Amino acid sequence: MYIDTHAHINFNAFKDDAGEVIKRSLEAGVFMINIGSQYSTSKRAVEMAEKYESGIYSAVGLHPIHINDEKFDYEKYLELAKKPKVVAIGEMGLDYYHSKQDSDKGKQKEIFLEGIKLANKIEKPMVIHCREAYNDLLEILKNNPVKKFGVAHSFCGSLKTAQQFIELGYKIGLNGIITYSPSYDKLIKNIALEDILLETDCPYLNPKPLPRDGRNEPENVKYVAGKISHLKNTSIEEVKMATTRNAKEVFGV
Ligand SMILES: [Zn+2]
Predict the structure, then answer these.
(1) CATH number for the domain harbouring residue 52
(2) Could you list which residues have their CB under 5 Å from ion ligand 1?
(3) In angstroms, what is the span from residue 94 Cα to ligand 1's centroid?
(4) Could you tell me whether strands 151-152 and 196-198 are parallel, antiparallel, or unpaired per DSSP bridges?
(5) Distances (CA, A) of 82 to 47, 68, 90, 111
(6) pTM for the whole thing?
(7) What spacing in Å lies between the alpha carbon of 86 and ligand 1's midpoint?
(8) Of 48, 119, 160, 216, which sits with the fewest C-beta atoms within 10 Å of its C-beta?
(9) How many domains does the chain have?
């Protein structure tokens, strides 16, 4: 059994066939956590999870690229976050790739801190989004202790940065990005399986050998596992077992 720790079946790309995609995933033995990026998609992720007895979970949060579309309403998110099918707060974090202005960076930091406060309040981990902002984000994490350690999702930093997250207690979330080029080979070889979570970030980041622009789905997490097993010279079964164990430990599923 796999757990796709970062899926977006709650996004419009799946509006016509979400039920079929979920059914296909569960039949293939792939559980998933659907991640919200705004209040509307967070709510949809929770409602989706509530329809299933097991296998489908959710995370609620405001993505840094959406902070100008919506005010972060702490109380509203808290109500949602208390629901039993919510296993994390996220995705939240810093994204300097999409907004480079200092005023925006300050606002992103403020809202990320609200996210940490929320995660600590309900004692759930965080799914962290970070792009071109690892130094600022790590500084925030070092100065604001959390009760439950989460994951640096869609990790795209250096080995040194990954090691800093791991030292703090976080897992490294890997997806199709690692199948596109050898850029992450060294990183994967040098971190332990115990520190890795698998994800797809579907509908985005369709892994090789599938077409890069195709719509990704949770079942494809096996290609990410395949690349890791190849690099670590271990069986795909071992990668599956270890990463599923990690996901259960982090998200309590
Ligand atoms: Zn995502």
Answers:
(1) 3.20.20.140
(2) 201
(3) 13
(4) unpaired
(5) 13, 25, 14, 19
(6) 0.97
(7) 16
(8) 160
(9) 1
